[in-house]
Amino acid sequence: MPAIVLDSPSARDIAQAMVDGFNRHYRLFRTESARAKHRFETCDWHGQQRAQRERIEFYDLRVRECQRRLEREFKAGEQPMATWQQVKLHYIGMLVSHKQPELAETFFNSVTTKILHRSYFHNDFIFVRPAISTEYMETDDPKAKTTYQAFYPEQHRLEDTVRAVFDFLGLRVVFEDAQRDARYVATALRRELGDSRPRPNFQIQVLSSLFYRNKGAYLVGKVINGFREIPFALPILHRQPGTVFIDAALFGEEDLLLLFSFSRAYFMVDMEIPSAYVQFLRSLMPRKPRAEIYNALGLAKQGKNLFYRDLLWHLRHSSDKFRIAPGIRGMVMLVFDLPSFPYVFKIIKDFYPPPKETTREQVRGKYKLVKHHDRVGRMADTMEFSLLAFPRERFEDALITEIEKYVPSQLEISDRDGDGQTEVIIAHAYIERRMIPLNLYLQEAIESSTKDPAAAAQLEHAVLEYGNAIKDLVAANIFPGDMLWKNFGVTRHGKVVFYDYDEIEYVTDCNFRRVPQARSEEDEMSGEIWYSVAKGDVFPETFGPFLLGHPKVREAFMRHHADLLEADFWQRSKERIQRGEVIDVYPYGIHRRFDVNEGAWGASELADPAAASAETPADQPDMSAPMTPGEPSE
């Protein structure tokens, strides 16, 4: 490629305008994230939830602002290709000492792709790969906190070090009993360390900013001792306004993967250098893709950008083909996957068989609702893409036939870029983590030998988790609508997560009724509905025939979740939400809480293993412990 002469009088000004646009975005994003600390201190739970929803829109608003400015001041869409090449080079130079260069590069891509024709979307005009390294970045302000802080304890005085960590947080609240909580945490840490004696590098590293989500704040860090590194998180909750306590100690990668799950709302964290936070979190969860960590921090556009890079990289180094996803075919969404890639691709169909009555716009509205809602660990996050292009040879013919039959409006097969390669171009799709469909998971357990203890445990777990998932959704003001097993999935952690959103409604928009008493024997024996049903009416008593056909499934369901078949349960939940109550759902098992046996989890008397592993709604408290507020439905 020949050398580029920087001779355009407007290229530098365009680049500076784009940097200014990004800086405005991140300043507002960071300010809103930093305010989460005050909202936590003052117990402004509804304000916290509102801010989490509104922050999601910040990025697109700033991109549109920047696009309009470039069109207004520079007629950006009319600039020649040579000018845009220079704009990118000037932009790179402006990011050399920037504290969020990777985010600024993504912002550049977002703005330019709104201005330029699709034929420009290649290395010369957008950032396909990062141009600026984010390694070893740290704040230049000597008065500011560094990304993380190290503490060096003596093992027999761990409590004192834990107290020092509490003080480091700078919360303007009072600890209910800081000495007690420090003792709980130190005791839990000694259990994790076991017989390991302190090594010369024995230290505790904690991220300088707390992670806020709804009613919870989380201290995140790791313990280093010799060659061992133990990730941990300490949930901080309010017992009463202005008084906080440490609710639990979560240790290990698995606990943190659940806390930072793709089925939870985004955290609010005050970060000057987000890449440094991502690098630290990646050291705690090395199996979690960087894309998902950026998502968890609320930087969804950066997460989406990294995900797409990962997808392209995977396609380059694999040879299997996209196929129709296993499981029961959906009525509204066409779902396909790549066996070697742990995600599914979902396209809204062009038409739906009866009794479905919906439109593409309504379905997209439901997915947007979930994106902005507290997902309570029970709804999968989705990434929305337009104009996804893949090599034609990577698609099975059966899948192409399926798309042509059900979604012709969203399919183009052509050499659109003029590079001699035929591509499959999907106009609009959602992408989400792949899970085992719950109906297949349950069927596997049913078909196994009745004398197989593992199969019996799998069935019990599936039914228990299914009911817990519904109750958590209800706590978050979500009525799933279509509650069939096929609309739920099982994650690799054994959690049941809902992923079919085309019929969801707010609980507060539903009218939960009992089935009226039959007027006559003819009514009772009739196969038709003989009572009036208005829009929004839901009859929980009628769920059973659709869900509980197998006797073993029914037995397990009635043992754990019979209340889901009663209108009273749903109506009580609705009334609590209408009163403004934020219902609590803990993102960890009740057996991990210090209020329960001082967090000495594993004691057989606490709960059966399946129940202990599940999140526990406040509707079902452990009666051996006092009720305390936790993190609410997300």
TrEMBL record:
Q: Name one GO molecular function term.
A: [isocitrate dehydrogenase (NADP+)] kinase activity
Annotated region described as Disordered, given as residue ranges: 607-634
Q: Which UniProt keywords apply?
A: ATP-binding, Cytoplasm, Glyoxylate bypass, Hydrolase, Kinase, Nucleotide-binding, Protein phosphatase, Serine/threonine-protein kinase, Transferase, Tricarboxylic acid cycle
Q: According to its UniProt record, which residues of this chain constitute the active site?
A: 381
Which superkingdom? Answer: Bacteria
Identify the residues that the record assigns to the Isocitrate dehydrogenase kinase/phosphatase (AceK) regulatory domain, covering every copy.
Answer: 15-319
Q: Which InterPro entries match?
A: AceK_kinase (IPR046855), AceK_regulatory (IPR046854), Isocitrate_DH_AceK (IPR010452)
One Pfam family, short name please?
Answer: AceK_kinase
Question: Compositional bias (Low complexity) at which positions?
Answer: 607-619
Tell me where in or outside the cell this protein is found: Cytoplasm
Q: Which reaction does it catalyse?
A: L-seryl-[isocitrate dehydrogenase] + ATP = O-phospho-L-seryl-[isocitrate dehydrogenase] + ADP + H(+)
Question: Which EC number(s) are documented for this chain?
Answer: 2.7.11.5, 3.1.3.-
List residues of the Isocitrate dehydrogenase kinase/phosphatase (AceK) kinase domain.
320-588
Which residues of the sequence carry a binding annotation for ATP? 325-331, 346
Functional description taken from the UniProt entry: Bifunctional enzyme which can phosphorylate or dephosphorylate isocitrate dehydrogenase (IDH) on a specific serine residue. This is a regulatory mechanism which enables bacteria to bypass the Krebs cycle via the glyoxylate shunt in response to the source of carbon. When bacteria are grown on glucose, IDH is fully active and unphosphorylated, but when grown on acetate or ethanol, the activity of IDH declines drastically concomitant with its phosphorylation.
Stated family: Belongs to the AceK family.
Would you tell me the protein name for this molecule? Isocitrate dehydrogenase kinase/phosphatase
Q: Which organism is it from?
A: Ottowia thiooxydans
